[in-house]
Design goal:
With 287 residues, the protein is an alpha/beta fold. It has 10 helices and 8 strands. The longest helix has 15 residues, at 25-39. It starts with 24 loop residues before the first helix and ends with a helix. Bound molecules: iron/sulfur cluster. Iron/sulfur cluster binds next to loops.
Length: 287
């Protein structure tokens, strides 16, 4: 009998999302499920780790392994999981506050080590779960409940950060374009090494419904430009920092050894030509 093909519904759990109607996170949930179905990954071979925030509810809505960790700690937990279980596909998901602020110190180290996992940030420029405080990606001048006269902070630029952290795959997409988002997630998961996808995902409740129009009007598909070369760091940098438009697509992709590949080589060097038994190892610690 022919095998039944997986569909995105096979990856959606029975838990009903409690996001606000119109929240961009619905599209990200569907895109992750569609990407997993495209890759025909068995449910038990996928683990999704998150921190705290509206978008960090996502693992509960998926029919895969999931872990809802503490604030900002999705990446170190996902990294540990991947190193102990290299056979599974690991996703770390969260919002801009969770990943860039509370968990900001984990990002450069997972990126530079090139640990083979995919980080998806639902970047809405606000702390939505805690009712609308200024976040690391809130635009300067924007009024929030903690910046009632307008934010006086320069926001983090995620793509610029990830390029300087030596991430081997950097992409951006949006909740407004499901097909593009699915394509970016599939490419990110297929990439061997650390992959980062920033998703411009509107918080309609605390930043307004016009976020959809703003993102739509300012978006530019840079990977559809003729002769675009994602291995060229200088071009990627240009599209990451330009204030003219929101760059969508794979900005940069350059595979290199992953941490687990280097770890395996290191084990071989340490072992040398010896066939060590457990007694040999224990005797090595004896005086
Ligand atoms: Fe989405 Fe914002 Fe509502 Fe949170 S508060 S569920 S981010 S729309």
């Amino acid at each position: 009998m022919a095998e039944t093909k997986m569909t995105h519904k096979d990856y959606i759990s029975s838990l009903k999302p409690i996001w606000c109607p119109g929240c961009g996170d619905f599209a990200v949930l569907n895109a992750v499920a569609k990407a997993l179905a495209t890759m025909e990954l068995p449910n038990e071979k996928v683990a999704v780790v998150s921190g705290i925030g509206c978008s960090s509810r996502l693992p509960g809505y998926l029919n895969t392994y999931g872990f809802n960790a503490i604030h900002g700690r999705a990446l170190p937990i996902a990294a540990g999981l991947k190193l102990s279980r290299p056979d599974i596909t690991v996703l770390a998901v969260g919002g801009d506050g969770d990943i860039f602020s509370i968990g900001g110190n984990h990002l450069p180290h997972v990126a530079r080590r090139n640990i083979d996992l995919t980080c998806i940030v639902m970047d809405n420029g606000i702390y939505g779960l805690t009712k609308g405080q200024v976040s690391p990606t809130t635009p300067i001048g924007e009024k929030t409940i903690t910046t009632v006269y307008g934010s006086i902070e320069d926001p983090i630029q995620p793509l610029k950060l990830l390029l300087s952290y030596e991430a081997s795959f950097v992409a951006q997409s949006t909740s407004l374009d499901l097909n593009h988002l699915v394509a970016m997630l599939v490419a990110a998961m297929r990439h061997k090494g650390f992959s980062f996808v920033n998703v411009r995902s509107p918080c309609v409740t605390y930043r307004g419904k016009d976020q959809y129009d703003i993102i739509r009007q300012r978006s530019k598909y840079i990977d559809q430009l003729p002769d675009y070369d994602p291995t060229d760091m200088r071009t990627a940098w240009h599209h990451a920092i330009t204030p003219e438009y929101i760059s969508l697509g794979i900005l940069y992709q350059k595979p290199r050894d992953t941490y687990d590949q280097r770890q395996l080589k290191l084990r071989e060097v340490a072992r040398g030509n010896h066939d060590w038994s457990i007694n040999d190892v224990m005797n090595g610690f004896m005086l």
